[in-house]
């Protein structure tokens, strides 16, 4: 198999350990491993995987995944597609970015040009290509609000497809790409930003930060977001203390009014706001609050894994943790939250090789 695959993608490696490529620093080997720098590279890799019936997985910044201890028995394609172009049309700046570009460097570049729309998404690790998949959001902004189109390779036809915002089917921390995992490999994303636009200042942490400065600049918002994220150990940059983690392990659950009325009297120790009413009368609840109220406080430790000292929604590898340890701990958390509050937590982290 190896020699035949080598003929199609000569640069392929074998048995590459994936742990160093992930922010969790956990994970076994990829049977095959290939770095794609162009869309043609992606097509070549997918064609090879299809021809030899090898499962494949696309790796970006690997900041939101947990790889199993046995690794991935297939082809891991590392997306390193670069590029950054921008043009003005009407009252918008349209910025097209390669999927392999650093997300935070892209935010910094746009903020430096005074283009608003993604400043509150500063400090989030990973690549541009992962942002529409997860529909990332933080501090009052969500990436789906500014995505104009996404270009991707359809792994079933080996052709390029273009998706406008509606076709992406965005939802809370999800999208059509996440629901159809493996079908599409994102190569470019185009964002519609506002030149000279006012920064978003709606999230309570940011409002509190700027109590005495009601009109912060985009750069000040970016710096504040990074500082707030750093307090939670979520900033993976030189000069910032961070943990071996994939960030928020669970999504904030969305529950019915009936569930919320049963839950409210049970929550005693969470600071406000720990819930957010939605337009459809459902309620989004802080998963961090549920963990704390179930007894999983910051710094809680179970062997080599546990809860971050800075943020109770972040499961961390304190050193030497296995994927099996992390998953066993996550299941313990889910079970206790379900028993105590009747709410089922869902992983935000993508599980690979399980």
UniProtKB/TrEMBL annotation:
Q: Name one Pfam family in it.
A: MurB_C
InterPro entries according to UniProt: FAD-bd_PCMH, FAD-bd_PCMH-like_sf, FAD-bd_PCMH_sub1, FAD-bd_PCMH_sub2, MurB, MurB_C, MurB_C_sf, Oxid_FAD_bind_N
Main location group: cytoplasm
The family database entries (Gene3D superfamilies) matched by this protein are listed as:
3.30.465.10, UDP-N-acetylenolpyruvoylglucosamine reductase, C-terminal domain, Uridine Diphospho-n-acetylenolpyruvylglucosamine Reductase, domain 2
Q: From the UniProt record, give the pathway where this protein acts.
A: Cell wall biogenesis; peptidoglycan biosynthesis
The active-site annotation reads 173, 248 (proton donor), 348
Q: Which cofactor does it need?
A: FAD
Q: Where in the cell is it found?
A: Cytoplasm
- Spell out the GO cellular component terms annotated for this protein, sorted alphabetically and separated by semicolons: cytosol
Could you tell me the EC number(s) of this protein?
1.3.1.98
Coiled-coil stretches are none
Q: Please, one GO biological process term?
A: cell wall organization
Q: Where does the UniProt annotation place the signal sequence?
A: none
Residues in FAD-binding PCMH-type domain copies: 25-196
Tell me the function of this protein. Cell wall formation.
Please state what the protein is called: UDP-N-acetylenolpyruvoylglucosamine reductase
Q: Which organism is it from?
A: Candidatus Uhrbacteria bacterium RIFCSPLOWO2_01_FULL_47_24
């Amino acid at each position: 198999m190896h020699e035949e695959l080598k003929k199609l993608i000569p640069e392929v490696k074998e048995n590459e350990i994936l742990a160093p490529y992930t922010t969790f620093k956990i994970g076994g080997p990829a049977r095959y491993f290939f770095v794609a720098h162009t869309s043609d590279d992606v097509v070549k890799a997918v064609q090879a995987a299809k021809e030899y019936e090898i499962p494949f997985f696309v790796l970006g910044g690997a900041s939101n995944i947990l790889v199993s201890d046995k690794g991935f028995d297939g082809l891991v394609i590392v997306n390193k597609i670069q590029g950054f172009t921008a043009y003005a049309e009407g009252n918008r700046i349209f910025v097209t970015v390669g999927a392999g570009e650093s997300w935070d460097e892209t935010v910094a570049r746009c903020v430096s040009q005074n283009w608003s729309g993604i400043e509150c998404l500063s400090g989030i690790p990973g690549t541009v290509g992962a942002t529409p998949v997860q529909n990332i959001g933080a501090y009052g902004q969500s990436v789906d609000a500014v995505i104009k189109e996404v270009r991707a390779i359809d792994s079933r036809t080996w052709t390029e497809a273009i998706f406008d915002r509606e076709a992406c089917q965005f939802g809370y921390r999800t999208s059509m790409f996440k629901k159809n995992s493996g079908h599409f490999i994102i190569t470019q994303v185009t964002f519609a930003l506002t030149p000279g636009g006012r920064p978003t200042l709606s999230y309570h942490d940011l409002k509190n930060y700027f109590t005495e400065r009601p009109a912060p600049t985009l750069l000040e918002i970016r710096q504040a977001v990074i500082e707030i994220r750093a307090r939670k150990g979520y900033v993976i940059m030189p000069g910032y203390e961070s943990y071996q983690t994939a960030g928020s392990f669970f999504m904030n659950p969305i529950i019915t009014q009936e569930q919320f009325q049963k839950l409210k009297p049970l929550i005693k120790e969470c600071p406000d706001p720990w819930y957010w009413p939605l337009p459809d009368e459902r309620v989004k609840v802080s998963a961090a609050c549920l963990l704390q109220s179930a007894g999983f406080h910051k710094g809680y430790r179970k062997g080599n894994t546990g809860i971050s000292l800075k943020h109770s929604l972040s499961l961390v590898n304190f050193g030497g943790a296995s994927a099996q340890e992390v998953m066993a701990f996550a299941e313990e958390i889910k079970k206790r939250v379900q028993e105590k509050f009747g709410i089922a937590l869902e992983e935000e982290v993508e599980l690979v090789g399980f």
